[in-house]
Write a structure and sequence with these properties.
single chain, alpha+beta, L-fuculose-1-phosphate Aldolase, five-stranded mixed beta sheet, two-stranded antiparallel ribbon, 7 strands
C-alpha cells in the first residue's frame, strides 16, 4: 500500500510517499502517516483501490456544527455523487477509527470524521480525490448557506 509520509500535505506529496504492507508491521511504518491504521482497516475491510484523507476546513466545521450522524448535501452536484455523507467518530490514528471508517465506507464513497476531516475511497486515486473535493464543496456550500440564512433573520 502506498501512503503519504507523516506530516505531509496533499498538495505537496512529491517524494513524500512510502510503501507499507497491509498487514503490520512494515519496515517503513514509522515514516507513514499517523492515520496508517485507518488506511489499513479501510483497504482490508472494503473493496477500495484508493483511500484519501484530508483536513478541509469546511468539512471540519460542518462535522463540528452538527450533532447529526450524517450530512445531506444541498447542492445538486454534491448530492449526485454523495447523497448522504456519514459522520464518524473516533480518536485519530486508532484502529477504532479505522473500523468506523471502513464500516461507513462499505456503503458510502466518503465520510466526515468529526473534528478531524474527511476520508474517501475510490476505484482509482483520481476518484478518491474527486470525492474528497465533492465533500469539501458540499460542506463549503452548507456553511455559506447557513450564514446567509442567519443574516436574513
Amino acid at each position: 500500500m502506498l501512503i503519504s509520509m507523516r506530516g505531509s500535505m496533499l498538495d505537496e506529496l512529491e517524494e513524500k510517499i512510502v510503501e507499507v504492507t497491509l498487514i503490520p508491521p512494515s519496515p517503513l511504518d514509522h515514516l507513514a502517516s499517523s492515520e496508517l491504521p485507518m488506511h489499513r482497516a479501510i483497504y482490508r475491510q472494503t473493496g477500495a483501490n484508493a483511500v484519501f484523507h484530508g483536513h478541509g476546513r469546511f468539512s471540519i466545521i460542518e462535522s463540528l456544527t452538527t450533532e447529526a450522524a450524517h450530512v445531506t448535501p444541498v447542492d445538486s452536484e454534491s448530492a449526485y455523487y454523495l447523497p448522504v455523507i456519514p459522520i464518524i467518530e473516533g480518536q485519530s490514528g486508532t484502529e477504532e477509527l479505522g473500523h468506523a471508517a471502513a464500516v461507513a465506507l462499505k456503503e458510502h464513497r466518503g465520510a466526515l470524521i468529526r473534528g478531524h476531516g474527511v476520508v474517501t475511497t475510490g476505484a482509482s486515486v483520481e476518484e478518491a480525490y474527486a470525492m474528497l473535493a465533492v465533500i469539501e464543496q458540499a460542506c463549503h456550500i452548507r456553511y455559506h448557506l447557513a450564514l446567509a440564512r442567519a443574516r436574513k433573520r
